[in-house]
Recover the amino acids of this structure.
């Protein structure tokens, strides 16, 4: 097993006034040659957006984009005729940019700050027809058990959202002193673990809020919750 810790304080960042962003990987004006990607995972941004502000219309192509609101409300519109669809905490959004799409993402509340994760995953097929989907996931369904949010479009055996890559994004909320054993698809895959809240122990490594851990060449690994903890897993081919 290969483990690499990324402390929250070591992330790249930007402050545009209306947007405060934290970058797990090189993005925009932040460049770190040692943090370009993790397998098929290209971007994990932790964005804080002021009330009424957001990203104006801009293009994407050939990227699987996943958005997870953590606080507040988002609204989305795009060139596929979707007009200001709200996205709330508890919901997840996927957008396959494919051959090309224009979209805009705004804070849906004029007064409250919005916090979200935006995840970009490289697709295993390019120039496909763009697609959009979103879904609500119950918090109770991830209490001390894994809740799959996103998976490969060829996997039809669950209710997760789908992308054009053999990857999966999952969450779990572990109560204090509880353990969970995460099993990977195979050793050719890796997991990027982001601790949303709490404190956990993984293979004698302690992680705190917004710390991350790269895990490679492992069949499985065990997590112990030192405190009540919310954990995000992004498992991708390496």
């Amino acid at each position: 097993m290969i483990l690499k810790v990324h402390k929250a304080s070591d992330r790249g960042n930007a402050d545009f006034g209306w947007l405060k962003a934290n970058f797990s990987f090189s993005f925009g004006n932040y460049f770190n040659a040692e943090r370009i990607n993790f397998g098929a995972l290209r971007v994990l941004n932790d964005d804080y957006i002021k009330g009424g502000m957001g990203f104006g219309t801009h293009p994407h192509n050939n990227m699987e984009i996943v958005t997870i609101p953590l606080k507040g409300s988002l609204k989305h519109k795009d060139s596929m005729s979707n007009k200001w669809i709200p996205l709330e905490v508890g919901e997840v959004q996927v957008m396959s940019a494919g051959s090309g799409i224009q979209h805009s993402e705004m804070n849906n509340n004029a007064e409250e700050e919005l916090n979200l994760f935006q995840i970009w995953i490289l697709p295993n097929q390019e120039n496909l027809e763009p697609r959009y989907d979103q879904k609500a996931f119950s918090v109770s369904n991830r209490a001390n058990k894994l809740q799959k949010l996103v998976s490969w479009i060829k996997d039809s055996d669950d209710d997760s959202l789908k992308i054009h890559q053999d990857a999966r994004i999952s969450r779990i909320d572990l109560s204090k002193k509880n353990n969970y054993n995460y099993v990977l698809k195979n050793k050719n895959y890796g997991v990027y673990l982001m601790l949303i809240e709490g404190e956990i122990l993984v293979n004698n490594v302690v992680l705190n809020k917004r710390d991350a851990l790269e895990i490679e060449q492992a069949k499985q690994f065990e997590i112990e919750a030192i405190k009540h903890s919310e954990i995000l897993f992004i498992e991708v081919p390496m």
